[in-house]
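Predict the 3D structure for this chain.
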Amino acid sequence: MGRGRGRGRRIPMDIIGSRETGAVAVVELREGDDPAEVAAEVMRRHRHVRSVLAKAGPREGRERLRRLSLLAGDPNTEVIHREHGYRIKLDPTKVYFSPREGEDRRRVAEEVEPGERVLVMFAGVGPYAVAIGRIQPEVGEVIGVEVNEDAVRYFEENIRLNGLEGRVEVIRGDVREVCPRLFGRFDRVLMPLPLGARDYVDLALRCLSPRGGILHYYAICRGEEGVGEEVGAVSRVAGCLGLRVEVKGWERVGHYAPGADKVRIDFIVSPIGGRDVSSKSGSCNNPSRPEAF
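Done. Predicted structure below.
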């Protein structure tokens, strides 16, 4: 996230792109702001920004898209974002991407061991999958599942852009339809969908190997009490499936709203009594949903 100080005031913004290829700034206008003045100040302070967009509403729908309006600059808002030695091509007006989560992507990727098979649900344009493929070159395989057609197209481009053909793959489709074909296959599963992940915990757990593995679960939480509620929800689903979960740790990924943060909770998952849950029929999903903010 970038925060430019424009002539004595702060301008909240995300800058997506790079100095080498150009960037797009996504700003949050406040009451009383003059959009033209804000855009001009952003471009004055950040010379590599070629387009300034303003948030025009909350993220909506299963694809987590936010309406953005062009304040100034080039209407072509496709950029190549650079972080930690890899590149991500995208258009923020068409797909979800947060540059604020670059450090989280690095930390998760550094935990992956050689030979691991990794599933990224709700994979977007592939930033987690690409980070894993680049930071752990000996990974066994990385599969991303994404429903947004534009995101899948960029994901495929990012695989080629980073030389990850044969190690990273994207499957287009809804996780409810795709994941049952992947049950029992992975050592590690990522769920970077902070609002609504509870609805898919059963799928994520069943995609893990029969011997267990690691689940990276994301949620919006209000303090440690909120984290505890999410841990309880995941534990109940796991118990229904005959699995045991242990919290390896949790981290704040970023600020979400007053009093609320996006967090990542890491679970060690293991079977109870050697049960294979990948073929278990029926649903063990927790019907309760996280509090809306």
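The first helix runs from residue 35 to 45.
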